């Protein structure tokens, strides 16, 4: 006797057009048995519903990861799903990825694997990683990957450019991280390292050679279109793209660097490396010490800048304040990934956090306070105090002079002379008119007074050696006679 499920299958195959012989062969039954149960009424079997997977509610999210990052790896997906509440194992995640992704095995070429002695070689390369947005400013994002060839120990430095100084800063940070420097460093044909090549003859960048010289590092340029010669760093860039970068959010460059440092120490350098079968961190312990030289070079971006009258210098599209006493002086500016430092005569005078947004004014509160103190001191000067006591408009005028970066003390002295010469009332009227026309400066006040007033105070006569001439007096002209003359001339012409 057969079970109900088999009877169901007999009738299902019959309805599908199978003959009794075909059904017997398919179900491994006797032909007579099949014929017997074909004569019985058809039965129904309720098949079991497939058991749901913990992954079902997360499939759309995984598909979105795959769409944006086609080579994303299972551990990364698992980590992102766990952040959303997933409590399943990595096996079902890996199986799902395998089913959803086609793995192309094209253009595979055989090549000899290059291995180096412990501590002998490092490989470097740049990778482009989209952009970061700072307000209204977009900055391209790059990563310099540095790999110690023997151990596969990895260092990653994210930057916003691939300039010469940035390359040197990044390598210096890498050497500090490793605590050692290699005998040779393998590069591709980046212009900051290789300026010219003809066949196997390579001309290296002079600035790059100058940077390597204190470390006694020899540069090695791999051949064009030969990625296998620096396969370790090529795979590292790919590893960063697949394992670190997907499905992360960042606020700024410092945030990116902090996240990649944490990932480097907890994932990249403590995983079992496929080729060596060891953790890079453990294998690096066998690297031959080659300590860094004393007095590491200063690789910061360096510019000579002018401190403008608003006590600020301009760098990378932003204003950074300097002490007010530096106004009009040339300063040395040095910038790294996080800070902007100002020097005057080799003495540090200001340190700012670097802003990657443009058209910003980055101001230290101490600089603003210093300006206020200077202004307060200025207001305590005698001439300024006298002018301030005349009227509120005089105070406003002096404030406007200070805001316009005019020499307030010197201007106040000239204004007092004009006040004495033309009289206080006329002077105050001139001040009010100058404010209305936003005319700030002693010459503006002088012109207004000259045009609208007659000096109230006459200068004393010049003393001559001949006393008789000093006593000579001329009669005052009669303006009435002049008026009469003008009137007569007008009538004659009529």
Molecular structure report:
This protein has 19 helices and 14 strands. Helix 15 (408-422) crosses helix 16 (424-436). It has 5 domains: 4-38; 56-100; 121-284, Ribonuclease H-like superfamily/Ribonuclease H (Nucleotidyltransferase, domain 5); 301-366, no CATH class; 380-494, no CATH class. The strands form 4 sheets. The protein has a 5-stranded mixed beta sheet, with helices on both faces. It has a 4-stranded antiparallel beta sheet with strand order 8-11-12-13, with no helix packed on it. A 3-stranded mixed beta sheet has the order 9-10-14, with no helix packed on it. 22% of the residues are buried. It is of the alpha+beta class. The chain starts with a helix and ends with a helix. It is elongated, with a radius of gyration of 43 Å. Helix content is 42%, strand content 17%. It has helices at residues 4-15, 20-27, 31-38, 59-68, 74-83, 90-100, 164-178, 206-212, 231-244, 253-268, 280-284, 365-379, 382-388, 392-403, 408-422, 424-436, 442-452, 467-470, 479-493, and strands spanning 121-134, 137-148, 153-159, 184-187, 194-198, 201-204, 218-221, 301-306, 312-315, 318-321, 330-335, 339-344, 347-353, 361-362.
Write the SSE topology.
Layout: H1 4-15, H2 20-27, H3 31-38, H4 59-68, H5 74-83, H6 90-100, E1 121-134, E2 137-148, E3 153-159, H7 164-178, E4 184-187, E5 194-198, E6 201-204, H8 206-212, E7 218-221, H9 231-244, H10 253-268, H11 280-284, E8 301-306, E9 312-315, E10 318-321, E11 330-335, E12 339-344, E13 347-353, E14 361-362, H12 365-379, H13 382-388, H14 392-403, H15 408-422, H16 424-436, H17 442-452, H18 467-470, H19 479-493
Parallel strand pairs: 1-4, 4-7, 10-14
Antiparallel strand pairs: 1-2, 2-3, 5-6, 8-11, 9-10, 11-12, 12-13
Helix pairs in contact: 1-2, 2-3, 5-6, 13-15, 14-16, 15-16, 15-17, 16-17
């Amino acid at each position: 006797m057969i079970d109900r499920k088999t009877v169901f299958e007999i009738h299902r195959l019959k309805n599908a057009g199978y003959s009794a012989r075909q059904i017997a062969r398919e179900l491994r039954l006797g032909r007579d048995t099949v014929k017997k149960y074909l004569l019985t009424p058809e039965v129904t079997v309720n098949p079991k519903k497939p058991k749901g997977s913990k992954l079902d509610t997360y499939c759309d999210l995984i598909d979105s990861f795959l769409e944006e990052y086609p080579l994303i790896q299972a551990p990364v997906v698992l980590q992102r799903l766990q952040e959303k509440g997933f409590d399943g194992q990595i096996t079902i995640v890996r199986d799902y990825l395998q089913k959803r992704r086609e793995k192309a095995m094209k253009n595979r070429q055989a090549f000899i694997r290059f291995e180096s002695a412990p501590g002998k070689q490092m490989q470097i390369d740049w990778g482009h990683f989209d952009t970061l947005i700072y307000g209204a400013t977009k900055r391209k994002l790059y990563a310099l990957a540095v790999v110690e060839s023997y151990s596969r120990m990895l260092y990653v430095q994210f930057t916003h450019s691939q300039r010469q100084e940035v390359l040197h800063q990044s390598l210096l940070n890498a050497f500090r991280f490793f605590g050692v420097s290699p005998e040779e460093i393998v590069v591709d044909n980046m212009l900051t390292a290789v300026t010219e090549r003809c066949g196997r003859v390579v001309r290296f960048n002079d600035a790059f050679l100058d940077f390597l010289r204190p470390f006694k590092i020899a540069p090695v340029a791999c051949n064009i279109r030969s990625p296998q010669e620096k396969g370790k760093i090529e795979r590292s860039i790919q590893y960063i793209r697949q394992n670190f970068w997907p499905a992360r959010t960042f606020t700024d460059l410092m945030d990116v660097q902090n996240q990649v440092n944490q990932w480097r120490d907890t994932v990249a350098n403590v995983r079992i490396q496929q080729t060596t079968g060891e953790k890079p961190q453990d294998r690096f312990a066998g690297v031959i010490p080659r300590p860094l030289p004393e007095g590491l070079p200063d690789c910061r971006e360096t510019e000579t800048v002018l401190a403008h009258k608003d006590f600020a210098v301009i760098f990378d599209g932003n204003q950074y304040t300097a002490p007010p006493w530096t106004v009009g002086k040339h300063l040395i500016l040095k910038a790294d990934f996080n800070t902007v430092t100002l020097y005057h005569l080799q003495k540090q005078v200001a340190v700012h956090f670097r802003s990657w947004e443009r058209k910003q004014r980055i101001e230290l509160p101490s600089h603003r306070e210093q300006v206020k103190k200077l202004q307060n001191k200025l207001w305590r000067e005698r001439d300024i105090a006298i002018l301030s006591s005349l009227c509120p408009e005089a105070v406003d005028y002096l404030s406007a002079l200070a805001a316009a970066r005019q020499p307030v003390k010197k201007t106040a002295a000239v204004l007092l002379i004009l006040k004495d010469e033309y009289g206080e009332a006329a002077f105050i009227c001139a001040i009010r008119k100058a404010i209305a026309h936003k005319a700030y400066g002693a010459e503006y006040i002088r012109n207004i007074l000259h045009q609208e007033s007659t000096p109230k105070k006459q200068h004393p006569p010049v003393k001559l050696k001949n006393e008789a001439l000093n006593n000579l007096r001329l009669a005052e002209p009669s303006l009435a006679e002049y008026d009469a003359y003008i009137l007569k001339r007008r009538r004659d012409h009529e």
